[in-house]
Amino acid sequence: MFDYFSVLISVIFGLALTHLLRGLARLIQLRDEARPYWVHILWTINVVLFVLAIWWGMYWWKGLAVWTAEWFFFIALYSVLIFLWAYLLYPAEFEGHLDFDAYFHGNRRWFFGLQLLVCLADIPETLYKGTLGLRAMPAAYPYVMSGFLLVGVVGFFTSNQRVHALLPLAWCALFTGYLFFSSLERIARHFG
């Protein structure tokens, strides 16, 4: 079942990555006409890295012997939420003269609302993998997920440009810290 399921998830995540990378490439092409916004570019990088990490993490489901329709639809919905979150960073098509500062802030509530839904869906997905013995939940996970949720709430409710300049940096610090400490934890478990 996992092989069948992983194709669907790979297509959804592949579409999310394609949209983000195509949008970023188009922004580079139109750099003299469009108005890039560094906060928006950092969010693009953060979401690309997040999609890749979640895609990698989906491999742990290979160990699940019995799939239920409810769990299949839950993970499919989780993947669709990630796609929608990624899709909001760039319009489907854009020509020059697009102000990405205005575009990002015009979609701010949708972007951070979907980010919150993605994080809330990640919690049962991660806990269930741990419960089934597919992958132990890293010790840093509750702290990082709390930080991600805080970033989402703050981003959703504030329009302050200075705060929005800090949010993708905070997300990146949380994400890289999580990867670092999770790797250390796996190393310690291996030698312990």
Most strands sheet: none
| Overall helicity | over 70%
Number of helices: 7
**Secondary structural class:** mainly alpha
Number of domains: 1
Morphology: globular
- Total beta strand runs: 0
What letter string, H or E per element, gives the SSE order? Answer: HHHHHHH
Mean pLDDT figure: 91
C-alpha end-to-end distance? 34 Å
Give Rg in angstroms: 18 Å
User: What ranges have pLDDT less than 50 throughout 5 or more consecutive residues?
Assistant: none
% residues in beta strands: under 5%
Describe the structure.
This protein is mainly α and 192 residues long. It has one domain (2-191). It has 7 helices and no strands. The longest helix is centred in the C-terminal third of the chain and has 31 residues, at 161-191. The chain is globular, with a radius of gyration of 18 Å. The mean pLDDT is 91.
Task: List descriptors.
192 residues, mainly alpha, 7 helices, 0% strand
List the helices and strands and how they pair.
Layout: H1 2-29, H2 38-57, H3 69-87, H4 100-106, H5 108-131, H6 141-157, H7 161-191
Helix pairs in contact: 1-2, 1-3, 2-7, 3-5, 5-6, 6-7
Q: What is this entry, summarized?
A:
The protein has 192 residues and is an all-alpha fold. It has 7 helices and no strands. It has one domain (2-191).
